Amino acid sequence: MSALLAWLLLPCGSALQRLVTSHGISSSDAAALVAAALESTGVVFEPVPLAGLCHERCAVFEGIPRRSELLDGIAASLDERGVAPLLSLGSDDAPWTTPERMRGRFDAAVRDHSDAFGLRVPVATRATGWTPDACRVVDNVALDGAWVDGDARYWDTSRVVSVDGLVDDALRAELLELCRADPVKGVDRRSWRRGALRDVIGGDDDVSGACWGLAETAIRRLCDETRVPEPIREVQSRIAAYLARRNDGAVVLSRISAAALDGVTPLTANAPVAADGDAYGWHIDGDPMLLPNGPWTDFHGRYPNRAPGKPRWVSAVIYLPHEWRDAWGAPTRFLDPPTREVLDVAAAPGRVVLLDQDITHSVQAPSAAAGDRPRYSLVLKLVLHPTAAGQVPSIAPEDGVRFFGSASRPDD
């Protein structure tokens, strides 16, 4: 009998209880888990590595219920010990009599955690007569190139892609009405508040705090997932269909979970006006590498955006004015940090800009020629979940890419 099977056949009343660990848990991680569990529960656990599990860095404790407060104590102790994020879970009372049963308990505990914190809930969609054939890619730009070290060193670039035809004029008008925004007159103060915009996950409000944003009640209406507004359901359906086409169906699109948003809403809207001047600073929307400890990092760890096999954080910016002339300005401006070169993506009615959330960018105020017209936009914070090991979900065609600034891969 193997040592693994011998431990799995230990009865629950034995002096040692089992701690099943996946392949990403090192011996030092396991030692820290044992010490944290002893500190929190008074029970000695024996680590049992098990191959073929569904999660890379996870440990499941025998005899601790799935949502026990004891797990919170173990997690806090691991944080104090400086252990890299991992998922520590309890199990149900089903017997741990074979490796196959243990894998079943392990898988069920991981699914329960994901469901409890909404880490992979597909966006609400509906049947639509629209198809991705209506799309035309206007900008397809790679920028901010860098080598990423890990198990395998790879060259990484962020991506900005602007798409016309994804939001047609009818849907654009519905979204504008949903935001209670007048396309010509100044900002409607009944629905919009100066300084209400907060869209930087874990970031500094100063970079967007000057901007007009939707009032709290309007934001709640936009974000309601129990009664999703039909224009939001439609635009989510179209984005999901576009991305499914880009990935041959091998992607799950979700809003960013509240467990990762740090108080930022998954949908927001802004309305820069000419009077704002130079009020806006550079910022990123979010970065899975920079998140504080929490349910998201416990499940996925901290990782560079676009890491193979990991969820990709993407924002979708939708320009809502029914008319927007070049002379009125207000592009979204992107920075290539290594070269300090800037890229402007022009606003156009109904244009959708998909961007990696870790790209440095800024809002630009309209020019004086725009008068009091706000440049309204709606922003969705999205996650593209891969469905295969090592996959990097795509947001743009790989042909016709413009390599900007530092994005050109070096020879070495």
Structure write-up:
This protein has helices at 3-8, 27-41, 69-80, 99-116, 169-178, 216-223, 230-246, 258-261, 295-300; strands at 17-21, 45-49, 58-61, 87-90, 136-148, 154-164, 192-194, 212-214, 251-255, 267-270, 312-319, 332-336, 341-345, 352-356, 361-363, 377-386, 402-403. The protein is α+β, with helices and mostly antiparallel strands. α5 (169-178) packs across α7 (230-246). The protein is elongated and about 75 Å long. Mean pLDDT is 88; it is low at 1-14. This is 2OG-Fe(II) oxygenase superfamily protein.
Describe the secondary structure blueprint for this structure.
Layout: H1 3-8, E1 17-21, H2 27-41, E2 45-49, E3 58-61, H3 69-80, E4 87-90, H4 99-116, E5 136-148, E6 154-164, H5 169-178, E7 192-194, E8 212-214, H6 216-223, H7 230-246, E9 251-255, H8 258-261, E10 267-270, H9 295-300, E11 312-319, E12 332-336, E13 341-345, E14 352-356, E15 361-363, E16 377-386, E17 402-403
Parallel strand pairs: 1-2, 3-4, 5-17
Antiparallel strand pairs: 1-3, 5-6, 6-14, 7-8, 9-16, 10-16, 11-14, 11-16, 12-13, 12-15
Helix pairs in contact: 2-3, 5-7
Signal peptide: 1-15
Domain Prolyl 4-hydroxylase alpha subunit Fe(2+) 2OG dioxygenase: 276-378
InterPro entries: Pro_4_hyd_alph_FE2OG_OXY
The radius of gyration over CA amounts to 24 Å
End-to-end Cα distance, whole Å, is: 51 Å
Low-confidence stretches: 1-14
Shape estimate? elongated
Key features of this structure:
single chain; 412 residues; alpha+beta; eight-stranded mixed β-sheet; 9 helices; elongated; 2OG-Fe(II) oxygenase superfamily protein; signal; Pro_4_hyd_alph_FE2OG_OXY
